[in-house]
Write a structure and sequence with these properties.
The chain is built from 8 helices and no strands. The protein folds into 2 domains: 44 residues; 116 residues, no CATH class. The mean pLDDT is 90.
Length: 188
């Protein structure tokens, strides 16, 4: 009877081990599910924010007018001065702020960098090139920390595009056949 009690204890210990193991596996699975759901919610919020009228208007301003405005010394002095830079006068601030916020989210792994860069890397590279002179002016008196998360995001984006020059289209899925019916007309 003493021997069977030891066997029973051993069997109970093994059973307990498997119950704990199954619970741990379920917990890891649940945590991954929660993390994926959180990242999806964050990405949806980012896309909605990106499509906002205010940001879209600021992006158009940066792309169409900023280079011309930067030739105005007073405009540059407003950027260089310590203190608040009015985004109504300097819409590029809205763009810098948005990219800086996105850099913070990516850096702190609130949003997965691979998912974010798949969506935005080329855009980030384009706007960093346009806005780098603005950031340089902003850093004159504010120091290197000014828009460092935008810079971080731009560095990640440049590296991502170098690693994925043709994007990350799945290899096992054939591309659709496209016909540019306007190619000849647009050559003129």
């Amino acid at each position: 009877m003493h021997w069977s009690f030891e066997v029973f204890n051993a069997a109970a210990a093994i059973g307990t081990f498997f119950v704990i193991l199954a619970t741990a596996i379920a917990a890891v699975y649940e945590l991954r599910h929660i993390q994926a759901k959180t990242q999806l919610q964050a990405l949806v919020a980012i896309l909605q924010d990106f499509r906002s009228e205010e940001l879209q208007e600021a992006l158009r301003y940066v792309q169409s007018y900023l280079d011309q405005k930067m030739h105005d010394q007073q405009y540059r002095e407003e950027l260089a001065a310590i203190g608040f830079v009015d985004a109504r006068v300097h819409p590029e601030m809205t763009v810098c702020n948005w990219f800086n916020e996105m850099g913070t989210l990516v850096k702190n792994e609130i949003v997965a960098s691979d998912v974010f860069l798949d969506q935005f890397a080329r855009l980030i590279n384009q706007y960093w090139k346009i806005l780098a002179p603005t950031v340089s002016i902003l850093r004159r008196q504010r120091g290197e920390v000014q828009y460092q998360n935008f810079e971080y995001l731009a560095a990640l984006s440049m590296r991502w595009v170098t690693r994925h020059p043709k994007g990350i289209y799945p290899r096992h899925v054939p591309h659709m056949q496209l016909q540019d019916i306007w190619l000849e007309a647009d050559k003129n």
